[in-house]
Amino acid sequence: MAGGALVAETKNLLLRLDPALAERLHAVAEVEGRTVSDVVREAIADHVERRQHDPAFARLVRASIERHSRLLESLAEDEV
Amino acid sequence: MRKLDVADVAALACELLQVTPADLLEVLDVERVAGILASPAATAIVPHEAAAGLLHGFLAHPPVPHLGRRLALLVAVHSLARAGLDIDLEPEEETRKHLQDIAIGAATLERTIAWLDSRVTTQGQEGEMFERFSAGARQVLVLAQEEARLLGHGAVGTEHLLLGLLHGQEGPAAYVLAASGISLEDARREAAAITTPSPAPPDGRPFTPRMKKVLELALRESLQQGDLEVGAPHLLLGLLREGAGVDVPVVRTLGGDPGGMREALLRLIEVDARVADQGHVEPCPAESPEDVEIVEAYLAGRAQQRRLTRDDEVRLGQMYEAGRAAQAALEQANDDVDLDREQVQQLQRQRDEGEEARRILVESHLHLSAAIAPRYRSFGVPMPELIEAGNEGLKRALEKFDWRKGYPFATYATWWIKQAMTHRIGQATRPPPASPEPPVALGGAPSPAQIERILEGLDPGELEVIRMRFGLGGGGVHALDEVAAHFGISREQVRKIEARTMELLLRRRPP
Fold first, then answer.
1. How far is A1 from chain B (nearest CA, A)?
2. Which of A48, A67, A73 is the best substitution to test chain B (most B C-beta atoms within 10 A)?
3. Cα–Cα distance measured from residue B222 to residue B131, given in angstroms and rounded to the nearest whole number
4. Is-contact B231 B174, C-beta < 8 A?
5. Among B95, B138, B204, B370, which is disulfide-ready with B89 (CB 3.0 to 4.6 Å)?
6. How many distinct helices (H) and strands (E) make up chain B?
7. Interface test with A, best of B1, B26, B31, B73 (most A CBs within 10 A)
8. How many Cβ contacts (< 8 angstroms) between chains A and B?
9. Interface residue ranges in chain B relative to chain A, Cβ cutoff 8 Å
10. Which residues make beta-bridge pairs with B230?
11. CA-CA distance, B499 to B188, in Å (whole number)?
12. CA end-to-end span of chain A, whole Å?
């Protein structure tokens, strides 16, 4: 299924973490030479990816998309 | 089950757009997704209501550009699939139109809920469905199988499900069935009459299509009530709702009232849930008197029946029978048989044990009279009289009870209670007796002192009314009219106080 044009825009999030976790986050960012935001983004992406590959989740989603594929395709036309 | 969370929605969006999570996060409004997921509409307990809330939330505030409708639909479908539900979205055009209406604010949430409700069905896999069945419900299905086997039927149908349910001992389903007066024996005879024996296929007895439909309905009943498991009460609800089934005519032929049973069941399921939550139930004032009576009787029975298993009943039945034999032997001994002292003592002990067994059996089923009486209310016989008649029937049931047959005593007792009540109604059409009789309590009339103690629960005014009516503390029995005139209240008010007192008497009988 083709994706629509993704318009990237950034948004500032205020993240409240307990001090120990915040410190580990800073340490990881420093060691890897990246920004804290970058590491957080990666952590969230990683979390989503693990969900995607969860067998039960993947099975249900595949079945749902297959079951309603025609409808989903026609809906894509409604959202240009 | 784990709640639907932001990661689920993000993963669904990734699937739809075929992008990586990292790319998606560039454009996904995570806070918006979190807000929709936490909204009251999206967190409704009933799956299709929650799905409607999700559709509205995601269509009104799409968290990803150019993906609003597909994502909204997939999230809703996914949330239903997680609950074991499938949705039929054909014809496509109608669904597109409805989603369009939601997006432009032309469809209300209620309309969407109704729209989904008509389209949601249980997912096909039987194995998955049974994972949602409670241990009790599974046992009912096993018993249904066994009943089909005993009757020589090749498939398990709704009539066997009813039989399985009739084996139940406690809980709302067993209670409602017992109160309806349908006995296992009668239902079995009906099942044998309506279904012809046929050989079972080598790989086991399948469920009939109607039975499958009932199981599906049971699942939907449980979901609608926000119950995580399908229990025996939901199976009975499914059975009562499957109007075209063999079952409901069976229920009717056997003297049950499907509509009334359904209502009573729903109330009792709620009571059970509230008891589990809070440890007690306080009937709210808006409930009808019938409701309150049903619930109170059920709770009274619930507390006592819990202790009486089928084995208990058999044991008590044996004790009662031995007690009666001992009593007969003792009477005979007085006349012409010589017994030594030890034999006499043993017989006396047996007689006393039998008496105790009788008391336990009767007391743990007293609630049945109170539960059945409201149904005969319209015949003009006052409730206390009906309950009294019912209790006489209960005593008679015990005399006739044969523990060897293996049926729950409640089933048997219900029949005799109804019998006694209809008999009393028949009598009531003749000229009434000159004065009211004080109620006959079971196991011999309680002494005036016992009655006074029981009546402590009444307020002082009510107590005076009852004293005068039944001549407690001397003064003789007075008619309703006389009591009403004396206290300056209506006849109906006196009757109500009397009825309430009878219930107190039934519930608080001294040990």
1. 7
2. A48
3. 13
4. no
5. B95
6. 26, 2
7. B26
8. 113
9. 7-8, 10-12, 14-27, 29-31, 65-70, 73-74, 77-78, 81-82, 86, 89, 92, 95-96, 99-100
10. B133
11. 37
12. 14
Smallest CA-to-CA distance from B409 within B367, B380, B438 is with: B367
**Which of B7, B17, B92 has the CB atom closest to A3's CB atom?**
B17
- Of the candidates B226, B228, B56, B225, which has an alpha carbon nearest to the alpha carbon of residue B133? B228
Q: DSSP labels for B309-361?
A: -HHHHHHHHHHHHHHHHHHHHHHHHHHT----HHHHHHHHHHHHHHHHHHHHH
Q: How far apart are CA B193 and CA B179, in angstroms?
A: 24
CB contact under 8 A, B11 and A51: yes
Chain B residue numbers with beta carbons less than 8 Å from the beta carbon of A5 are 66
Q: Where residue B300 falls among pLDDT bands split at 50, 70, 90?
A: low
**A72 shares contact with chain B (CB less than 8 Å):** yes
Distances (CA, A) of B180 to A45, B287, B389: 59, 21, 17
Helix, strand or coil for residue B127? helix
Return the beta strands (E) in B359-482 as ranges: none
The single residue listed with the structure tokens 């032309």 is B106
**Does the N-terminal peptide bond of residue B199 adopt cis geometry, omega within 30 degrees of 0?**
no
Q: Cα–Cα distances in Å, from B12 out to A8, B27, B192, B267, B434?
A: 19, 14, 52, 40, 80
A72 contacts on B by Cβ (under 8 Å): 16, 70, 73-74
| CA distance to partner chain A, nearest, from residue B55 (Å) | 14
Instruction: Give per-residue pLDDT as tens, B348-390.
Output: 889 988 988 888 888 778 777 777 777 776 777 777 677 788 8
Q: Is the ipTM of this complex over 0.95?
A: no
B131-145 pLDDT, tens digit per residue, is 678 878 888 888 888
d(CA B47, CA B87): 11
Q: Where are the domains of chain A?
A: 17-79
Closest residue to A68, CB basis, from B20, B65, B89: B89
* SS3 assignment, position B87: strand
Unique residue bearing structure tokens 């003749």: B430
Give the CA radius of gyration of chain B. 30
**At residue B505, does pLDDT exceed 60?**
yes
